[in-house]
Amino acid sequence: MTINTPTHSRERPEHFEVGSGFPAGFLFGSATAAYQIEGATEADGRGPSIWDTFSATPGKIVGGDTGAVADDHYNRLDTDLDLMAELGLEAYRFSIAWSRIQPTGSGEVNPAGLDFYRRLVDGLTARGIRPIATLYHWDLPQALEDLGGWRNRETAYRFAEYTRLVVAALGDRVPVWTTLNEPWCSAFLGYGSGAHAPGVTDGDAALRAMHHLNLAHGLAVQEIRELAPHAEVSVTLNFHVVRGDDSEAVRRIDALANRSFTGPMLRGAYPADLIEDTSTVTDWSFVLPGDDVIIHQPLDFLGVNYYSTTRVRTWDGVSPRERADGHKDAGGSPWPGSEHVEFLHQEGPFTAMGWNIAPDGLEELLVSLSDRFPDLPLMITENGAAFEDEVVGDRVPDRLRVDYLRRHISAAHRAMGRGVDLRGYLVWSLLDNFEWGYGFSKRFGIIHVDYDTQKRTVKDSGRWLAALIERRAIPE
Questions:
Q1: Which residues 6+ apart lie within 8 Å of 378 measured at CB?
Q2: I want to staple 84 with a disulfide (CB 3.0 to 4.6 A). Which of 40, 89, 239, 246 is the partner?
Q3: Whose CA is closest to 189, among 2, 37, 383, 331?
């Protein structure tokens, strides 16, 4: 969301809420995504996804890595469930691989795929961990991409059918459903910049994909409401906290990054300025009468993913254009219609991803969302950091990650003190895993994974989180 206050952190000094408690019912947990951890990409009838294809394409992934094995979570489910219980997790957000359920994205259900997620959900419930199921975390069945993928309106209807199959099978077990994870990445990195699967670099395609993802969300909510009326329903968005003294540049990027989804999902319409900004890229003919009603569905809470801030200004057209938007450069642009905006390098410290560490951005994001949507509860569904970890004996002393988590959870606590209805905090990620275009070169986990042996080692950050959960207060 727009935060046009470049000196805000100096105006409101950061402080830690050590010893401050969290209310009963506030959920602490962790999160993962299917393609990043499951492996077993050809097991038990699973079909190929766009990430199987993309990661097998030379030059697309750092180190030539793929998710074919990843953390082998598919075959080590009980081990990982026991680790979650050891840490005392109260909630676990996972995603369901569409191509495990429908290998080609349509047609009959694959029973073995559903059985895996039944075992996962039942294992969580038996350990007292609340399941939060995400229906889509970027791994579109390749057969649907061959028909146009998210550029094709029909994909939204296939997603609704897939949702119906999954919820019919698991709706009695799963209390919380999330339709989409970070559809901005699916649309603008997948079809605009080319940094994510399927690797398309076309502004019109990105905007079409954006709309069809919004439509898929609305259709899926309707299916969940019908089949699991007592479940909570949400969507997870990766908000760009856009800063800068140039209000026009800030407005333009806020429209593309944030309001392109909150507008139709939460307000019932696309922002007029977004349509005007992108009028040279597309004619918006893919938006049909009645789509606004379908997309604008009531939610029980909004999932918030936050990692860093973004600083922008209008490019002068002469000096070298800065492109430090935090996303991997793959040749295209994730900002259709805004090629004259530049993304400025920011002050550190930084994570191993090169993202600036700005916990005040999280606090202000939560307060801003609460102000804009006062009747909609929030949950932090991803927050975490990649650092260069080292295994020392039977420990991983990841001091920087502990500090990162402490500072951001303190920021969340301050936001609650300012009136934000925040329902939970989920650390990204439970395990080191396949970090999309960066392969296995970046580690976000609170549990270290040796990819050669698949040995798991709980990091100091995992122990710190366990202490936080046990005490319900931020540890020293």
A1: 301, 302, 304, 366, 369, 370, 420, 421, 422, 423
A2: 89
A3: 331
| Residue 272: CB atoms within 10 Å | 10
As annotated, the active-site residues are 182, 382
Cis bond upstream, residue 429 (ω within 30): yes
- Each residue of 244-264: pLDDT tens digit? 999 999 999 999 999 999 999
| Residues constituting the chain | 476
DSSP conformation letters of 39-67: --TTSTTPPPBHHHHHHTSTTSSGGG--T
Rounded CA gap, 145 and 276, in Å? Answer: 29
Question: Across all residues in the chain, what is the average pLDDT?
Answer: 95
- The SS3 assignment for 8 reads helix
Q: Which of 71, 79, 2 is nearest to 32 (CA)?
A: 71
Amino acid at 461: S
How much is the pTM? 0.96
SS3 100: helix
Name the nearest CA neighbour of 139 among 185, 93, 107.
Answer: 185
What angle do helix axes 460-471 and 77-87 make, rounded to 10 degrees?
A: 50
Angstrom distance (rounded) from CA 443 to CA 431: 8
Rounded Cα distance, 351 and 87, in Å: 24
Cα–Cα nearest to 140, from 199, 193, 205: 199
Residue 428 main-chain phi, psi, to 5 deg: -100, 120
**Contact between 136 and 179 (Cβ < 8 Å):** yes
Residue matched to tokens 């074919």: 68
- In sequence order, what DSSP letters do the residues of 168-194 get, joined into one string? HHHTTT-SEEEEEE-HHIIIIIIIIIS
